[in-house]
Amino acid sequence: MEKKREGFGSRTAVIFAMAGSAIGLGNIWRFPYMVGEHGGAVFVLIYIVATILFSLPIFVAEVIIGRRSHTNARDAFVKLAPGKPFWRLVSILPIVIPTIIASYYSVIGGWSLEYFIKACSLDFLRTAPDMATDLFGGFVSSTWVPVIMHLVFLAMSAVVVALGVKAGIEKFSKFILPVLFILIVLIALYSMSLPGAGEGVRYLFWADFSEFTPRTFAYALGQSFYSLSLGMGIIITYGSYVRKDENILASSAGTAVSDLMFALLAGLAIMPAVFAAGIEPGAGPGLIFQSIPYIFCKMGQEAPTLSTIASVLFFFTVIVAAMTSLISLIEVGTAFLVEKFGMKRVRAVFAMFLICGTAGVLCSLSFGPLSGLTVAGMNIFDIFDWVASNILLLIMAFLSVVFVGFVMKKEDVRDEFTNGGAKRRNAPLFNAVYFLIKWVAPIAVLLIFFTNFIL
Ligand code: PHE
Predict the structure, then answer these.
(1) Pocket flag, ligand 1, residue 216 (CB < 6 Å)
(2) Count of C-beta atoms within a 10 Å radius of residue 10
(3) For ligand 1, atom 2, which residue shows the shortest CA distance?
């Protein structure tokens, strides 16, 4: 008999848990700088369309794989396609990808930690707004501080994984998510009231199609997958906790919409500040660490107490959002080492710390002493991100939709989608969603995948 597994209690619980994984540095840190590097509003537009047309069906497909197999991401493929060695091989990807992402994610977590410390020690009150960019440049290109911060941040997250305090983290993120939403709205309002901010809003929503290149597509889709935690086995795992009477389409759409809204709000908080501060939108991964402090330095001149409270709260929530995501990224590899090699949990976490720690040190140094080490204009950090987000995530997402479209029986997929016919309103939508999963998504992902290399 199958062991009874834990599950989410309600629709809101499902959406909260999935949104908790989805909303993270991907929205606050990665989305704005991707927009800045890839042509502004054109990127935003493609990102929105891609999320609805491709990512949402893929999200649904991953939840279906999870709920149908009722097991972890590695075993799901093996269980649903027994005796097929190819799918056994594929199932290693959801272990490798999160480990790569964890390595550089932790570096950005370290930056947030440093900025939280700066906020607490009132650094922003002592810095002229125009110096915010220099403050970041000096920090990130130095050798030791960013490396130490990365290792401390990784160690903090690893300790939580080692303790396995799942319930605590979940309850915490449920509380922190609304706080993050409120804060980002307040910062967006302040940011939009700065002189010259209108340009930033225009940059986000007024598409200039001359900026479009086929690569914009590849990066927008990569961002959408990254932001929704797709192609990583995370949604498959969460899907396995979704109750049998839960509406898969409604939960998936709820998660995708919250994630999308959060990204747009982060854009509205950051882009106007970028323009008001005269920062180059294509400044790269440091964008939010230059623009957000500008806001706090400026606010500090008029209302120091408010600026201090807001900056401490802001970086604290960024740290927590990043930590909850990093924990889930480390957990995947840890669980694998424990189950596959029979390692003790603490040892497995330590092994993950060593792997991600070392790789992360290289990523961190690539902004300073190792910045000369580049391939096709990308430093080590960029290469890690590119390989994971633009190559491996796309491959895994492609394989997931092909699996649901071609390996699973159509009737089984329909059964999951409509809960055995109980969700009548989903029935007429089934053929359209199935078509998107089976034909549109794989072809689009394949085309976009090759765009990465050819154009
Ligand atoms: N989706 C998360 C973000 O936007 C990143 C993440 C990916 C987290 C995979 C967990 C697992 O930051």
Answers:
(1) no
(2) 10
(3) 22
Beta carbons within 8 Å of 107's beta carbon, 6+ residues apart: 146, 150, 360, 363, 364, 381
Q: Which domains does the chain have, with CATH numbers?
A: 11-453 (1.20.1740)
Bridge partners (DSSP) of residue 375 are: 378
Q: Among 226, 320, 331, which residue has the most ligand 1 atoms within 8 Å of its CB, making it the best to mutate?
A: 226
If you take atom 10 of ligand 1, which residue's CA is the nearest one?
325
pLDDT tens-digit readout, 300-355 = 999 999 999 989 988 988 998 899 889 889 988 888 898 889 999 999 999 999 99
Nearest one of 371, 336, 309, 387 to 104, comparing CA atoms: 387
Which residues in 30-58 are b (16+ Cβ under 10 Å) and which e? bbbbbbbbbbbbbbbbbbeebbeebbbbb
